[in-house]
Amino acid sequence: MSKRLVDVEEANLYLFNLLFRHQVYLEGVKAGFAGGFKAMIRRLYDEFAKYVGQTRYDSLDAFSRVEINYFVRRFQAGQTNEFNIYTQKLIALLKDFLAADVEVHAAMFAAATDYPGSQHSEDATAALAVPRTEADNAGLWDSIAQAVIPATGLTIQEMLNNFTATSIAKVTNQLMIGWANGESIKDVLAAIAGDQELRYRDGLFNTFNNQNTAIIATILQHVSAQTQAAVAAELYSDEQWVSVLDAVTTEICRSRNGNIYPAGEGPYPPAHFFCRSKRVPYSGGELHNIPATFFDWAETQPEDFLTDALGTTLAASILADNTKAQEISINEVAIPLTVDEFSGKISFITM
Fold this sequence. Notes:
This protein is mainly alpha-helical. The chain has 14 helices and 3 strands. It has helices spanning 11-54, 65-113, 122-126, 134-146, 156-180, 185-193, 204-232, 251-256, 294-298, 303-310, 312-319, 330-333, 339-343, 346-349, and strands spanning 238-242, 260-262, 278-281. A 3-stranded antiparallel sheet has the order 2-1-3. The longest helix has 49 residues, at 65-113. The radius of gyration is 23 Å and the shape is elongated. The two termini are 12 Å apart.
């Protein structure tokens, strides 16, 4: 049997819980998206190793200037091709996620407006029952794609283009440093791809993977925040900034935690890379009573939700008030999700 919510009859608290359960699953989507880049890096490593295997030299200083330029261009071409393919697939996935997130948010707000104590007109709540078309979602995507992300001052495409260009430049620079210093090709490849004995945790590719994880997390938070704003626009006039409070919460999100903004005005998440904050609407009356930590919120949640979102072991640890569980950060414990799996979480979010 699920553990019941504290003060479950309060409409604002129910809405607050819906949106934070959504955030937990959103962290899972972020983790799921990150896997695509790792697969691309593995393909790129195989391609780079092939280039190295085809050369007759053992060290880069054996190359003439013409030869090193050709060698570098092969690396650049390989990266450009793989990054472009990855970016195209990522944009397609983001569009799929947007469509899924629209449905999830519509279901959340429908559940919230049906909840005793909610204060909305019939016309406003009826709008949630109207199915969105592909054209509606395409228009929303165009709007989001053109918007500047608060954390970076760049659009989604600009962030991805910068990431591609910077990554290619770093690999090029590593090759040229190796050539200038007479390093062995094996050592230069290790500097790019990482040392096998260190499980490839020390090379440029590992740096790229960490950067991509931050970029994906930030872009998805941006897409979801804008999707939420679009779906909630007809229902709520005010919103409260709510930050996930744990050991990695930034000062900017702590300073905004609890602030009230008119809907559509003021700052929106993400405020920085890896931001997990939300603007939570409320339907009049008392403002949200924000829990001091993520753990304080999690221990009030239904057992079925915790088990599904965090796994049996961690859910049991939270419900048992385990000291170690009090230190968790949701981005570290989220279970990776595909877009389809995320779409299937509505019943857990709205319970």
